[in-house]
Amino acid sequence: MSQSSPTARPARELRDLLREGEAVTIVCHNNPDPDCLASALALGRIAAAAGVEEWRIAYSGEISHQQNRAFVTLLDIDLQPFDPAMARDRPAGSLLAFVDHSVPGRNNRVPADAPVDIVVDHHPAEDIDARFVDHREGIGATATIFTEYVRDLDADLDEELATALLFAIRRETLEFLRGTTRAEYEAAGYLHERADTALLRQLASPSVTGATLDAIATAIEHRRTRGSVLISNVGRTTERDALPQAADYLRTLEGVETAIVFGIAGRSIHLSGRTTDPRIHLGDALDDAFGDVGAAGGHQDMAGGEVPLGVFADYTDDDEALVDIVEQVISARLVAELRLSEESSG
């Protein structure tokens, strides 16, 4: 495994590895966001410039957040549904790359034993194993790393790619208010004059579906606070990406430092949380609470998780009763993990 560093010129190491391949499959994490999608697009462009004959971007889950859908549509990003065979049955000369995630089977549907060639990520992670690894937890966005690559390789940066990378950095750092480093400002300065400002405005203000508004309204109605922690649920929803939007909104409620929202989407329970409390590492807290039954984790101030309905669904075929059971069990685990008082207020 090669653990790259700024002094090792990781962009050139990456280019040299890409030149060994004839094709590369770039795997996004489940339900990819702009940081993941822009990074995948940048890696594809770098691969093409390195002489790779074929590259493709694959993802699992859904692209349901209105901003993510607008990102894919307006930038005309060609995506393919991920098939495990893409990782398991690769021909000689075919490379497998992860962007914005790092470990097979974690927040992706890649078989856990699949060998990975390239990993570029900024999320906390352990046990990363690949031929090329550029893992920088201190950086605010994976798109920042790819902007560095584009600069170091003097790659062709058209309006489309510049706009994608700039929007991804802005979105991932919440307009430079979360996890921002000097590298994000330098990357944004480099990208700004090359980006399409009109397109940036379109991406920043996509239309919102009625189902998203309904989910946020339900989260507001069901909120319960224990001290500075707010926990809410949206019941069953078709809008998984309404959960982080609800968490963002509820975190701004007076007296609230931590907001966690969960709900059932498809055959899984999804969670999303936000905090400004320095005593809580939200990614670790959700991992400790749900890592034994699902996948959860993230940053200190922003995290999420997914728990298969599994055994919950075995208790009842009554959907209303199922929602009640999920609400009780998920809330109880959060209360226990965060050591909250059982007393709550609406």
UniProtKB/TrEMBL annotation:
Classification via Gene3D superfamilies: inorganic pyrophosphatase (n-terminal core)
A single MF term (Gene Ontology): nucleic acid binding
Domain spans labelled DDH: 24-169
SUPFAM superfamilies noted in UniProt: DHH phosphoesterases (SSF64182)
Entry-linked InterPro entries: DDH_dom, DHH_sf, DHHA1_dom, Oligoribo/pAp-PDE_c-di-AMP_PDE
Residue ranges of domain DHHA1 in the record: 228-331
Protein name (database record): Bifunctional oligoribonuclease/PAP phosphatase NrnA
Origin species: Halosimplex pelagicum
